[in-house]
Design a protein that fits this description.
Layout: H1 2-18, H2 25-31, H3 53-58, H4 65-68, E1 72-75, E2 81-86, E3 92-99, E4 102-110, E5 114-119, E6 122-129, H5 131-134, E7 145-149, E8 152-155
Antiparallel strand pairs: 1-2, 2-3, 3-4, 4-5, 5-6, 6-7, 7-8
Length: 157
């Protein structure tokens, strides 16, 4: 579908340009009437299709607006905490998890609705939850929470 749209756009542009006079691109670039008319035209080889740079950068990237909203401090029970910070690459995060045995840092990657990271050689997933879903009595009734696994949850409210 996208290819057809590009072809139709190209054909319409070619028709419009064909009626614009007899000046060629070389003459226009040399500086005559309408010299800026072709300044923003990208030359594409006949066997290739123009590519929209915005589509290249975001075509495979997940929408990280959900997980970007998780940045900051989350509190668990008995002094446990989770601190999430954005890393340099969009969709990646530094997770500082404070448990009873201390604080450890992990690099995580968003899939749009969760952050995946490796801890102790095992894949872990940080996801949205309610206090009840964490399985922790202290967090019961809380609505804005994240959990890694049952009995390992953190909330903001």
């Amino acid at each position: 579908m996208r290819t057809m749209r590009h072809l139709l756009t190209f054909a319409a542009a070619a028709l419009l340009l064909s009626g614009c006079g007899s000046k060629t691109a070389d003459n226009a670039a040399a500086g005559g009437e309408g010299e800026n008319a072709l300044a923003n035209v990208e030359e594409v080889p006949a066997n290739e299709e123009p590519v929209d740079a915005n589509l290249i950068e975001t075509a495979d990237a997940p929408d990280v607006s959900v997980t970007d909203g998780w940045v900051g401090k989350w509190v668990g029970v008995e002094g446990l905490a989770l601190d999430i910070a954005r890393a340099e690459v969009p969709g990646t995060y530094t997770l500082n998890v404070t448990l009873l045995d201390g604080t450890r840092s992990y690099e995580g990657t968003s899939d749009g609705s969760a952050i995946h990271f490796t801890r102790g050689g095992k894949e872990q997933t940080l996801r949205k939850a309610t206090g009840e879903e964490t399985g922790l009595k202290y967090l019961a009734g809380k609505k804005d929470c994240l959990m890694i696994q049952p009995s390992e949850g953190f909330c903001r409210d």
